[in-house]
Amino acid sequence: PHTDPEGPRRGIRRREYRDAIGRRTTPNLPPRTFVAMRETTATPHDPTHRPAREAPGTRALRTTRVLSAVMASLVLVQGASAGTYLEGIGGALAVHSLVAMPVLATLSLVVVVFAIPAAKAKRWVAGAATLAWVGVMMQIGFGYVRFLHFHVPLGIALFGAYLSIALLAKE
Fold first, then answer.
1. What whole-number distance in Å separates Cα of residue 164 and Cα of residue 64?
2. In what helix (H) or strand (E) does residue 154 lie, and over which residues does it extend?
3. Distance from the CA of 61 to the CA of which of 4, 13, 49, 161 falls in 20 to 30 A?
Protein backbone atom coordinates (compact mmCIF):
# COMPACT_ATOMS: atom_id res chain seq x y z
CA PRO A 1 0.00 0.00 0.00
CA HIS A 2 1.24 3.44 -0.81
CA THR A 3 1.64 6.01 1.93
CA ASP A 4 1.42 9.15 -0.21
CA PRO A 5 -1.80 11.01 0.80
CA GLU A 6 -2.18 12.37 -2.75
CA GLY A 7 -2.28 8.87 -4.20
CA PRO A 8 -0.37 7.45 -7.14
CA ARG A 9 0.04 9.66 -10.16
CA ARG A 10 0.08 7.93 -13.53
CA GLY A 11 1.54 4.72 -12.25
CA ILE A 12 4.17 5.95 -9.78
CA ARG A 13 3.95 7.82 -6.52
CA ARG A 14 4.55 11.58 -6.50
CA ARG A 15 7.40 11.26 -4.00
CA GLU A 16 9.13 8.69 -6.22
CA TYR A 17 8.67 11.03 -9.13
CA ARG A 18 10.20 13.96 -7.22
CA ASP A 19 13.09 11.74 -6.10
CA ALA A 20 13.68 10.59 -9.67
CA ILE A 21 13.70 14.18 -10.89
CA GLY A 22 16.07 15.15 -8.09
CA ARG A 23 18.57 12.44 -9.10
CA ARG A 24 18.79 13.59 -12.71
CA THR A 25 22.29 14.12 -13.95
CA THR A 26 21.36 16.91 -16.36
CA PRO A 27 19.55 19.61 -14.34
CA ASN A 28 18.91 21.92 -17.33
CA LEU A 29 16.49 19.55 -19.04
CA PRO A 30 12.77 19.83 -18.24
CA PRO A 31 11.39 17.02 -16.11
CA ARG A 32 10.07 14.03 -18.02
CA THR A 33 6.54 12.93 -17.50
CA PHE A 34 6.01 9.30 -16.72
CA VAL A 35 2.93 7.62 -18.13
CA ALA A 36 1.75 4.29 -16.84
CA MET A 37 1.35 1.52 -19.38
CA ARG A 38 -2.14 0.35 -20.03
CA GLU A 39 -3.21 -3.17 -20.95
CA THR A 40 -1.25 -3.19 -24.19
CA THR A 41 1.34 -0.94 -25.71
CA ALA A 42 -0.99 -0.30 -28.67
CA THR A 43 -3.57 1.40 -26.45
CA PRO A 44 -3.27 5.19 -26.71
CA HIS A 45 -2.47 7.05 -23.51
CA ASP A 46 -5.06 9.74 -24.14
CA PRO A 47 -8.33 8.71 -22.45
CA THR A 48 -10.31 10.84 -24.92
CA HIS A 49 -8.85 8.95 -27.89
CA ARG A 50 -11.40 7.17 -30.04
CA PRO A 51 -10.46 4.56 -32.63
CA ALA A 52 -10.72 5.64 -36.25
CA ARG A 53 -13.90 4.71 -38.05
CA GLU A 54 -13.81 2.23 -40.89
CA ALA A 55 -13.79 3.62 -44.39
CA PRO A 56 -17.23 3.76 -46.02
CA GLY A 57 -18.24 0.49 -47.62
CA THR A 58 -15.62 -1.62 -45.84
CA ARG A 59 -18.07 -3.98 -44.12
CA ALA A 60 -20.15 -4.31 -47.27
CA LEU A 61 -16.96 -5.05 -49.20
CA ARG A 62 -16.03 -7.83 -46.76
CA THR A 63 -19.53 -9.29 -47.01
CA THR A 64 -19.41 -9.08 -50.81
CA ARG A 65 -16.08 -10.93 -50.83
CA VAL A 66 -17.42 -13.72 -48.61
CA LEU A 67 -20.62 -14.07 -50.61
CA SER A 68 -18.64 -14.09 -53.86
CA ALA A 69 -16.46 -16.90 -52.51
CA VAL A 70 -19.62 -18.85 -51.65
CA MET A 71 -20.94 -18.19 -55.15
CA ALA A 72 -17.69 -19.40 -56.73
CA SER A 73 -17.92 -22.56 -54.62
CA LEU A 74 -21.51 -23.17 -55.66
CA VAL A 75 -20.64 -22.63 -59.34
CA LEU A 76 -17.91 -25.23 -58.86
CA VAL A 77 -20.54 -27.59 -57.40
CA GLN A 78 -22.61 -26.91 -60.51
CA GLY A 79 -19.74 -28.07 -62.70
CA ALA A 80 -19.34 -31.21 -60.61
CA SER A 81 -23.06 -32.03 -60.78
CA ALA A 82 -23.04 -31.49 -64.54
CA GLY A 83 -20.07 -33.82 -64.83
CA THR A 84 -21.83 -36.53 -62.84
CA TYR A 85 -24.86 -36.11 -65.12
CA LEU A 86 -22.63 -36.60 -68.16
CA GLU A 87 -21.30 -39.81 -66.57
CA GLY A 88 -24.87 -41.10 -66.46
CA ILE A 89 -25.53 -40.89 -62.72
CA GLY A 90 -29.25 -40.44 -62.14
CA GLY A 91 -30.51 -37.43 -60.22
CA ALA A 92 -27.49 -35.26 -60.97
CA LEU A 93 -29.44 -33.04 -63.35
CA ALA A 94 -32.08 -32.49 -60.66
CA VAL A 95 -29.35 -31.38 -58.21
CA HIS A 96 -27.88 -29.16 -60.93
CA SER A 97 -31.26 -27.48 -61.50
CA LEU A 98 -32.08 -27.28 -57.81
CA VAL A 99 -28.85 -25.45 -56.98
CA ALA A 100 -29.15 -23.17 -60.01
CA MET A 101 -32.60 -21.68 -59.84
CA PRO A 102 -33.39 -20.87 -56.22
CA VAL A 103 -29.90 -20.80 -54.68
CA LEU A 104 -27.61 -19.22 -57.27
CA ALA A 105 -30.23 -16.80 -58.56
CA THR A 106 -31.02 -15.50 -55.08
CA LEU A 107 -27.44 -15.43 -53.84
CA SER A 108 -26.20 -13.60 -56.94
CA LEU A 109 -28.82 -10.90 -56.30
CA VAL A 110 -27.72 -10.68 -52.64
CA VAL A 111 -24.13 -10.18 -53.84
CA VAL A 112 -25.30 -7.24 -55.98
CA VAL A 113 -27.22 -5.74 -53.04
CA PHE A 114 -24.08 -5.82 -50.87
CA ALA A 115 -21.82 -4.73 -53.74
CA ILE A 116 -23.67 -1.43 -54.20
CA PRO A 117 -22.58 0.05 -50.83
CA ALA A 118 -19.22 -1.72 -51.24
CA ALA A 119 -18.64 0.49 -54.29
CA LYS A 120 -17.74 3.28 -51.84
CA ALA A 121 -14.58 1.31 -51.07
CA LYS A 122 -13.95 -0.26 -54.50
CA ARG A 123 -15.88 1.18 -57.45
CA TRP A 124 -15.51 -1.75 -59.81
CA VAL A 125 -17.13 -4.25 -57.43
CA ALA A 126 -20.71 -3.10 -58.07
CA GLY A 127 -20.29 -3.29 -61.84
CA ALA A 128 -18.62 -6.69 -61.69
CA ALA A 129 -21.30 -8.09 -59.38
CA THR A 130 -24.08 -6.72 -61.59
CA LEU A 131 -22.53 -8.22 -64.71
CA ALA A 132 -22.10 -11.53 -62.90
CA TRP A 133 -25.78 -11.44 -61.86
CA VAL A 134 -26.78 -10.87 -65.50
CA GLY A 135 -24.51 -13.79 -66.40
CA VAL A 136 -26.22 -16.03 -63.82
CA MET A 137 -29.63 -15.17 -65.23
CA MET A 138 -28.41 -15.91 -68.75
CA GLN A 139 -26.78 -19.10 -67.51
CA ILE A 140 -30.06 -20.35 -66.04
CA GLY A 141 -31.91 -19.47 -69.24
CA PHE A 142 -29.36 -21.17 -71.47
CA GLY A 143 -29.49 -24.25 -69.26
CA TYR A 144 -33.27 -24.60 -69.41
CA VAL A 145 -33.40 -24.24 -73.21
CA ARG A 146 -30.36 -26.57 -73.56
CA PHE A 147 -28.04 -24.12 -75.32
CA LEU A 148 -25.07 -25.98 -73.90
CA HIS A 149 -22.59 -24.35 -76.28
CA PHE A 150 -23.27 -21.09 -74.35
CA HIS A 151 -24.18 -22.63 -71.01
CA VAL A 152 -20.87 -24.40 -70.32
CA PRO A 153 -18.42 -21.56 -71.19
CA LEU A 154 -20.58 -19.04 -69.35
CA GLY A 155 -20.43 -21.23 -66.24
CA ILE A 156 -16.65 -21.21 -66.43
CA ALA A 157 -16.68 -17.42 -66.84
CA LEU A 158 -19.00 -17.03 -63.84
CA PHE A 159 -16.67 -19.10 -61.69
CA GLY A 160 -13.82 -16.80 -62.69
CA ALA A 161 -15.89 -13.67 -62.12
CA TYR A 162 -16.99 -14.57 -58.60
CA LEU A 163 -13.56 -15.88 -57.68
CA SER A 164 -12.03 -12.62 -58.94
CA ILE A 165 -14.42 -10.53 -56.85
CA ALA A 166 -13.65 -12.65 -53.80
CA LEU A 167 -9.87 -12.42 -54.22
CA LEU A 168 -9.32 -8.95 -55.70
CA ALA A 169 -11.82 -6.80 -53.80
CA LYS A 170 -9.53 -6.19 -50.83
CA GLU A 171 -9.88 -3.24 -48.51
1. 12
2. helix 148-168
3. 49
What Cα–Cα distance (Å) separates residue 121 from each residue in 20, 71, 111, 127, 163?
51, 21, 15, 13, 18
Supply φ then ψ for residue 13, to 5 degrees.
Answer: -75, 150
Please say whether the beta carbons of 68 and 162 come within 8 A. yes
Q: CA 69 to CA 72: how far, in whole Å? A: 5
Rg (CA), the chain: 30
Per-residue pLDDT tens digits for 133-167: 999 999 999 999 999 999 999 999 999 999 999 99
For residue 129, give every residue at least 6 positions away whose Cβ sits within 8 Å of its Cβ, in sequence order, or none. 64, 68, 108, 111, 112, 115, 165
Contact between 57 and 121 (Cβ < 8 Å): yes
**What's the helix, strand, coil split of the chain in %, to 5?**
65, 0, 35
For residue 37, what pLDDT band results from cuts at 50, 70 and 90?
low
d(CA 165, CA 170) in angstroms, rounded, equals: 9
